[in-house]
Design brief:
The complex is a heterodimer of chains A (120) and B (106).
Chain A: E1 3-7, E2 10-12, E3 18-25, E4 34-39, E5 45-51, E6 58-60, E7 68-73, E8 78-83, E9 92-99, E10 107-110, E11 114-118
Parallel strand pairs in A: 2-11
Antiparallel strand pairs in A: 1-3, 3-8, 4-5, 4-9, 5-6, 7-8, 9-10, 9-11
Chain B: E1 4-7, E2 10-12, E3 19-25, E4 33-38, E5 45-49, E6 53-54, E7 62-67, E8 70-75, E9 85-90, E10 97-98, E11 102-105
Parallel strand pairs in B: 2-11
Antiparallel strand pairs in B: 1-3, 3-8, 4-5, 4-9, 5-6, 7-8, 9-10, 9-11
Classes of the chains: A mainly beta (120), B mainly beta (106).
Amino acid sequence: EVQLVESGGGLVQPGGSLRLSCAASGFTFSRCWMSWVRQAPGKGLEWVANINSDGSEKYYVDSVKGRFTISRDNAKNSLYLQMNSLRAEDTAVYYCAKVDYYNSGYYDYWGQGTPVTVSS
Amino acid sequence: DIQMTQSPSTLSASVGDRVTITCRASQSISGWLAWYQQKPGKAPKLLIYRASSLESGVPSRFSGSGSGTEFTLTISSLQPDDFATYYCQHYNRYPITFGQGTRLEI
């Protein structure tokens, strides 16, 4: 059974940093692209970042470029999102999502999400 | 960036109804479109990929169609469990974008 379990969310002040983690199991993590998708309170879904299977390719939405870094550790079956210079508009539930087996780009499994609140 | 626009934003329906949700892309995305269902406080769930392919385990009352810029999600006979919010997503190229969502309510 595929499982994605996020952790690391919480309350942080504007300008602060946070590192999210996603522990993956039930599939061959090292062969799959992975993603972070967020959802602000009461709003829709927003793609944040993608990373390829070996970590050599990374893509970001413009609003987080230069502030967020997606990474992975295939030996630990883990995905990460380092978030720096956080802003109020980064407040959201952050989901870890697995890209489909053929790396087409849709998400066949999602974690339960971890909430991030940026506020003073 | 490719903009995804869903209509309607809210849809009122009853159990047993046939409903259709539309998703329009601001430029052609071929068939690179997925549909998700989300219930309050839960993660999204994949329903349809490549515009019309039904994800394993998803009931056959769900179907998708379309290509290019116009796509539809149809639920043939609404069940109580189907009342939720539905999102389309393109994966034609970066940045990946989602529609704003369609809330399906009683």
